[in-house]
Amino acid sequence: MVFRRRNKRTWPERVKAAVYPQGGWLRAGTYVWHRLTRLPDPPHRIARGIFAGVFISFTPLFGLHFFASALLAFLMRGNMVAAIFATFFGNPITFPIIAVSSVQLGHWMLGTGVDAVPARLILSAFASASGEIWQNIVAMFTDSPTQWGQLRHFYYGLFKPYLVGGIAPGLVTATICYYVSLPVILGYQKLRQKRRRDRAESIRERAAARLRARAQADDGASGSP
């Protein structure tokens, strides 16, 4: 394969790359922003996609953020690629803030106030719930008993508050990102179009100059004795 890595990465290296990408999060964020601004679509569609991706980042749909953001962008007539890139808003740096604040706000809104939930426990709870869901699916086709009690506790104690509590901050943050990104993308696209026009004009001028120089050379050659 042409694009296959020469040296395969080990599992610890893959986990490290997922948590802390090569070059750092600032470089990764800059790359994502450049990809967003270079998408071949009108600015308002790209901004809608950014809105969708940022909003979905505030939901507990881990593992489904790409699909959910693309679906929401499709329903909003936004750019689905921009939505997928915008889910980068939810990363290991912002996740503790998003998760803890959403869970706490959700418990407050539902009237089931609890003490602060550490982000590490939220992540491990989602991992355990995913494993239990898979075990119960397997149990449906085997003789093993299904156990949904712990998942019920996970749903009411964590998933539902996270889902409810993430709506308001998700809408606010996504709206801010929409109105901030729209004029920036519009200005960037206009600048790129101007650079392309200037480059095309420069190419035409150089071509015309070469033609004039060639014509003068031909006239000089024909007028010489």
Helical content (DSSP H or I, runs of 4+): over 70%
Taking the sheet with the most strands, its summary is: none
Number of strands: 0
* Overall pLDDT metric: 77
Structural class by secondary-structure content: mainly alpha
Regions with little confidence, pLDDT below 50 for 5+ residues: none
- Estimate the strand proportion: under 5%
SSE sequence, one letter per element? HHHHHHHHH
The gyration radius over C-alpha positions equals: 27 Å
Number of helices: 9
Choose one word for the global shape.
Answer: elongated
N/C terminus separation: 64 Å
Give an account of the 3D structure.
The protein is mainly α. It is built from 9 helices and no strands. It has helices spanning 11-19, 24-37, 43-56, 65-75, 80-86, 95-110, 119-139, 149-165, 167-223. The longest helix has 57 residues, at 167-223. The radius of gyration is 27 Å and the shape is elongated. The relative contact order is 0.11. The mean pLDDT is 77.
List strands and helices in order, with pairings.
Layout: H1 11-19, H2 24-37, H3 43-56, H4 65-75, H5 80-86, H6 95-110, H7 119-139, H8 149-165, H9 167-223
Short description:
With 225 residues, the chain is mostly helical. The chain is 74% helix and 0% strand. It has helices at 11-19, 24-37, 43-56, 65-75, 80-86, 95-110, 119-139, 149-165, 167-223.
